[in-house]
Amino acid sequence: MKKFSFLLVFSLLLFTACKKDHVDATNTKTLQTSINDMTSSLPTIKQIKFNEALYILKTFGVEADGDINELKALGKLIDGKKVPEIMSLADEVAQKNGIEWASTAPPSLGEMNIFGDDKAKESDPNDVKAGALSLVTRPTGDDGNGAPTAIQIIPRLVDAAGNPVSFTGAGLETTLEVFSNGVRLSTAKNLMQDNNFKGFNLKFSSIPAAKVVDNKIDITVSVKTTAKTFKMSKIGLDVNAAALKVPVVPKTDTTDISQQPGAVIDPNNPAATVPSVTEPGAATPAAPATPKQPTTDPKNTVSKFLNSVSSQNLKAAYDVSNNPSWGSYESFSNPTSGFGSVKNVSVKNITTNAANPNGASVNATYDVTDKNGKTTSLKVTFGLKNVNGDWKISSYKINQ
């Protein structure tokens, strides 16, 4: 009996000894196994906070595209670290990114799993039911001449009628992308924990002046809930050119002789140089960045627009448009003069007429029934343009 007890105790000790107390990022499997071991050794509340810390680090502490690459980058960041070190690192990242999170605070982000279990749970705080995303932008700061130095960008999740959705205790990954002339200039992330989210303060001093065209920028904000990612853009926002980031010109030492790389020096006249000929195979200057290209058929945008109008989800319909003639959302959705007067849309045919990376033309034939029961058959040509990689309806022509 004593021998059996000894073997049992020995087995338990051996099992405990095999469990890791630090991250092993040799590969994704060892990363997950070691994190599971570390998590299981913690009390329940600490487990939740540890998972939140890992989520903070994976989302905001590394730069990578896609979950697999993010996990690899996270592994490199925390390899060999123990729980206290990881919690401390997450505190630093949260503070640096302006996220209201602390390792010593109560759980606030819901049940986080960096290994990809995104299914809604019975009490999943990230399963926020919303119809669309709205954006409010306003200039802030003063450069001393009455011009702003930044833009405050505030996203809000709203229902189909455009009313803010109420929720708390969430941890919705919120991403801001800044573009000019279709070229992405910067990306920022934060967590939306409720619908009082403060948003992003985009400082003009963080935007390179050389990459801004016509002193205007475009922004796209996306908010990821458990079930859906909502996206909204604003186009042609004015910036204060005087506040943009301008590289510091290095001081030139006039006593030095400026030479081109590989130049031939004339010993009789050191100040004069003869440029060398570029050798075959030498690196050529990098080509300018190209605008982000859409990956979907433009007729999909028109189809979504018409379906949204038919179902009276006018916010979603407005979100896929960038047509100045439609004005504000209030004008667009007006129940008398706008699309708010539509009761039903019956689509007969949608075809892409022409498309290139920057624009497209789509023809659609459909019947529109207004709220008085009157039905009108329409043939419409929709013009679309590429806005940060998404097709947006920019014109609307009814053909006779």
From TrEMBL:
Region (Disordered): 253-299
Low complexity compositional bias, start-end: 278-296
Top-level lineage group: Bacteria
Alphabetical keyword list: Signal
Leader sequence residues: 1-19
Protein name: NTF2-like N-terminal transpeptidase
